[in-house]
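Hi Y.,

Following your request, here is the sequence exactly as I used it, all 174 residues.
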Amino acid sequence: GGEAWNENYGWVNNDDVPDICDWHGVICDAADLESSGRKKQRELQDTTATTSYKVRGLKLPSNFVTGRTPDSLWSLPLLEQVDLSFNPHLDVNFVGIGDYNTRLKQLVLEETATTSITGLAAASETLEVLQLSKNNFGGAVPADIYSLTHLTSLQLAECKLQGSLPDDIHRLSM
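Below is the corresponding structure, written out as tokens. Let me know if you'd prefer a different format.
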């Protein structure tokens, strides 16, 4: 994917950019590799598949990303922040988020085509920032929001939500 993206360095022809940490919008932290020892570092550098163990963040705002996010996005074990905001034709799904990722702290999805947060409750132990403004939820505040008890920031402006807030609102510590 990525041919039509505004910034697609590494995403279109990844043979030209074999290290995923050099791709546009991918944030890595090599410091963790050094603490794991030289042998482990060499193993991680030898194969492209294991480079995913260095990825800390994905920032592709306003990049014309379209379609639906793959479930494999959440399998990046060190992933802490994702910003896919202002990609109005991107539907972010949370299938599998609890199967792999236990470090996600910040999720910025303002003005995407996300219509559901089903499954997001699996990130309840780590998620601190959730920005979902200008999405197409509609109806009542999604119940999964109330299980995200570590949130310090929640943005739901212009999501077409209706009704009153349920009694579970007190579970949020913001």
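The CA atoms of residues 50 and 71 lie 17 Å apart.

Thanks again,
Q.
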